[in-house]
Amino acid sequence: xxxxxxxxxxxxxxxxxxxxxxxxxxxxxxxxxxxxxxxxxxxxxxxxxxxxxxxxxxxxxxxxxxxxxxxxxxxxxxxxxxxxxxxxxxxxxxxxxxxxxxxxxxxxxxxxxxxxxxxxxxxxxxxxxxxxxxxxxxxxxxxxxxxxxxxxxxxxxxxxxxxxxxxxxxxxxxxxxxxxxxxxxxxxxxxxxxxxxxxxxxxxxxxxxxxxxxxxxxxxxxxxxxxxxxxxxxxxxxxxxxxxxxxxxxxxxxxxxxxxxxxxxxxxxxxxxxxxxxxxxxxxxxxxxxxxxxxxxxxxxxxxxxxxxxxxxxxxxxxxxxxxxxxxxxxxxxxxxxxxxxxxxxxxxxxxxxxxxxxxxx
Length: 362
What we know:
2 domains
């Protein structure tokens, strides 16, 4: 990592991942303001989370068939989407902007993660952990940006658009194309469909709590400013848990870690539903931070590696991130968004049971 090109890649990637984290973390605090701005229910405004995830899934599929994806292009898509959201005259335009931000974010994740492994040599895997932790740094800053912008949608997303555009212009060059990636072994996938389902459930729960948690706190009587600050704490604990993976990954088997993380989500949501709202919501941030990494390692060990298999494993997570928040938004439209924490408990318990069942098959 001593070459100037490697240093440029690391610095630019760290800043880009922090920006992507900040953009995603803006959704939660934005939900009450979006509901007022577009005269819709908070549960309907939660569809912004679904739109982001749907865009990410589409972007990931695009990455599997389009070889021309570069860091510059991914960040340009984020800038375009955030700009649309800042200027959106209608709710439909706001959702379209979120789709673009989601697509750009997913493509950026694919590009930067791949380049770290390909260009940083033996230090690549360890640096990859730090790269994904920087997402958490940005996620801590995102709600604070919203507070600093006075709770305004246009200045918050406008700032993201400007920063993404600058980073796009400064993006380092791409990587020479390598040998074609092997196709996923579909037989192995079909023999282990439960693992992919666990990944989808885990990422869906993570995105639902991150995106709708602050709105649920507001509906349960908390001020919007205080809920935004608790959202920042949520992502602070999220970041601490991701950093802790540096030690946890070598000490706890991935499926056991996945089961424990789901169980901790259920415990935290139970406490929040019983009235310990802010602290319990913050604790859930640490639990959901471990879900995807534990799932990814377990699925890779069971199903195999390679670029296309990795894309399939990640795509399962994005599919869950699309389906779970969408279903939860519809459910909470009937129950009330304040029931978010209670409604998440059975999903988390199902995930814990599924991870333990998968581990028993070893």
